[in-house]
Design goal:
With 266 residues, the protein is an alpha/beta fold. It folds into two domains: 153 residues, D-Maltodextrin-Binding Protein, domain 2; 87 residues, D-Maltodextrin-Binding Protein, domain 2 (3-Layer(aba) Sandwich). The chain contains nine helices and 14 strands. The strands form three sheets. The chain has a five-stranded mixed beta sheet with strand order 6-1-7-14-8, sandwiched between helices. The protein has a five-stranded mixed beta sheet with strand order 11-10-12-9-13. The protein starts with 11 loop residues before the first helix and ends with a helix.
């Protein structure tokens, strides 16, 4: 599903000592808090928001709902740490956090250095375009030939752009607010995103629309349309415990939590 990260620090796992939280009753979760509806930052507390460690703010979203449920079921205290996307896996390997719950897809590249639980959400890859632009009625990837298309840096979505023949593959940007600004300003013709994120974007930007291409869209692997919890490879007990918790969450409940996250996002 989300994002192919080029892990330049593969050797890190052999150099750093993975030290899980000194308190075995605390689950330290790393995420961006900037990837709605999976996670976002808010200034005030609520029933669904969790305080961000060492930051005067709170994190909310679908990932936080999943993290809270896991912590409750494991009878652990939840701590949230806000970490930039490219720093999540290094933070996990160094022991700064215990798990990553951040809309991360279990790609083979990542699985070389971390272990993944079973999926906790499944989606699809789509494009976001101007509602009044030339691409709003596109029916296949070929319709985007010549278009200026952009995605987030270090992600699966950025890699998918090259499947469009004749595309103007624009330089990736670091975060979604910048990507949306590029699209709404006309610098970009289309933005590649996974469906829940695209739905979040258009709900806040009335001049944008989602293009879903179905079988005429991107060719993706199964791991590209699912998200999982990442843990250190040696933490097999934690991996099994989280899988047991996830098995108790029905598909209907997962979809409901996502709908609720889309409704309450800023």
């Amino acid at each position: 599903m989300r994002r192919v990260l080029s892990i330049l620090l593969v050797g890190l796992v052999f150099v750093l000592t993975g030290c899980q939280s000194e308190d075995d009753n605390v689950l330290v979760v790393g995420l961006e808090c900037n990837y709605a509806p999976f996670n976002w930052t808010v200034s005030s507390d609520s029933e669904t928001a969790v305080e961000i460690e060492e930051v005067n703010a709170y994190c909310d979203g679908y990932d936080v709902q999943i993290a809270s449920y896991i912590a409750d079921e494991l009878d652990m205290e939840l701590q949230i740490r806000k970490i930039e996307w490219d720093g999540l896996i290094p933070a996990l390997l160094s022991g700064e956090i215990d798990v990553i719950i951040a809309g991360m897809s279990p790609t083979p590249e990542r699985a070389e250095t971390v272990s993944f639980t079973n999926e906790y959400y499944r989606s699809e890859q789509v494009l976001v375009v101007s509602s009044s632009g030339a691409y709003v009625d596109a029916a296949s990837l070929s319709d985007f030939s010549g278009a200026a298309v952009i995605a987030q840096m270090g992600t699966l979505q950025d890699g998918l752009i090259d499947q469009i023949r004749g595309v103007n593959h624009q330089t990736a940007l670091t975060d979604y607010p910048s990507l949306v600004a590029s699209l709404t300003s006309g610098v970009s013709d289309a933005l590649v995103a996974e469906l829940p994120v695209a739905e979040s974007i258009v709900s806040s930007n009335s001049g944008l629309s989602i293009v879903r291409l179905g079988e005429n869209g991107f060719a993706v692997d199964d791991s590209d349309v699912s998200v999982s919890v990442a843990v250190r490879q040696e933490d097999t007990t934690l991996l099994n415990d989280i899988n047991a918790v996830l098995s108790g969450i029905s598909e209907a409940t997962r979809n409901l939590w996502m709908e609720e996250a889309l409704t309450r996002q800023p």
